[in-house]
Amino acid sequence: MAGSIPEKLCEKLARSHYENFPVGSIFLPRQLRKHVCNIYAYCRVCDDLSDETGDPQLSLELLHWWREELHACYEGKTNHPVFVALKPTIDMFDLPMEPFDDLISAFIKDQSTNRYETFEQLLDYCRQSANPVGRLFLGLMGYRDQARLTLSDYTCTALQLINFWQDVAVDYEKGRIYIPQEDLRRFGYTEIELKNRITNPAFAQLMRFELNRTREFFENGAVLGRLVEGPGAADVDLFGRCGLALLNSIEHSGFSVLTRRISLSKGRKLMIALGWALRRIITG
After folding, report:
1. What is the pLDDT of residue 10?
2. What pLDDT is attached to residue 135?
3. Nearest-angstrom CA–CA distance, 244 and 210
4. Cα torsion angle, 254, 257, 260, 264, sign
5. CB atoms within 10 A of CB 278
6. Where are the domains of the chain?
7. Is 25 helix (H, G, I), strand (E, B) or coil?
8. Are residues 153 and 127 in contact, defined by beta-carbon separation less than 8 angstroms?
9. Fold of the domain spanning 1-112
10. How far apart are CA 186 and CA 209, in angstroms?
11. Cα separation of 156 and 197, whole Å?
12. Contacts of 30 (CB under 8 A, 6+ apart)
């Protein structure tokens, strides 16, 4: 089958990344799983072009090239294996170009913006860096209404925020600080302290504040899991449940994100999934 090699490449790329977005879980039927992997593979390449070159100018050039490939894909002219696999997904589910394009815009922004003054500015970034993923996932499920898209945006923004709080130290090593500058000043925590990975009461208060705001986004989007049906419904619900579990893990660790990367083990994710399945059986 002509598309098998590109699809296998997409599955490999997808499964090597996006730990906070469950990729092709056991609840997805094989046919839908393939399309999820195709979308996440596209996201993974965007991410690599942005972060793995070590040269912002080269990353910009590659991201603009990737955008040209995206446009060529929609015109049916691409030969890149990721787009060869993605094109049937786009056509089958009539996926718009805008979410794919927004993701590229977010990574382009990463090349020139490494600090955010306000939380609202950070949310603007999330609207391009995370929300498109959820909108595309809903597109695979056949949902396009604004109500569900808005709920998805809440959850995806929360997942992006929790990733920022997970990776405070990692991002600093890349020259980026996603904690809003206004929040650093508010709690009296300095970049020098961040550089030295100092976890003090000011940092704990700062992180508690950010986690509480993130929890509100998860709660605002939680109802989405009850408003979708069919293949993928379990994953929509699990996005939020895994995110909240990770948020709680960071809190229970004493906000020790500067000295270790806190994540959910495969066993923990499985227990969350099994708990979800059991509740569905009991409640019908």
Report:
1. 60
2. 97
3. 13
4. positive
5. 10
6. 1-112, 117-284
7. coil
8. yes
9. Farnesyl Diphosphate Synthase (1.10.600)
10. 11
11. 28
12. none
Compute the 3-state secondary structure of the chain and give helix, strand, coil in percent, each to the nearest 5. 70, 0, 30
Give SS3 for 145: coil
Answer yes or no: same fold for 1-112 and 117-284: yes
Q: CA 34, 36, 74: angle at the middle one, nearest 5?
A: 95
Which bin fits 115, alpha (ψ -120 to 50), beta or left (φ > 0)?
Answer: beta
**CA separation for the pair 92, 87 (Å, rounded):** 9
Pair 199, 254: CB distance under 8 Å: yes
The CATH fold of domain 117-284: Farnesyl Diphosphate Synthase (1.10.600)
pLDDT for 5 equals 61
DSSP H or E segment with residue 92: helix 81-93
**Per-residue pLDDT at 230:** 78
Write out the two tokens for 258: 């500067």
pLDDT along the chain (284 residues), means of 10: 56 56 59 88 93 92 97 93 96 98 97 97 97 95 96 96 96 96 98 97 98 96 89 79 90 94 68 50 45
Q: Residue by residue, what is the 3-state secondary structure of 261-275?
A: CCCCCHHHHHHHHHH
Q: Quick one: pLDDT at residue 31?
A: 76
CA distance 164 to 166: 5
Question: Quick one: pLDDT at residue 26?
Answer: 58
- Amino acid code (one letter) for 144: R
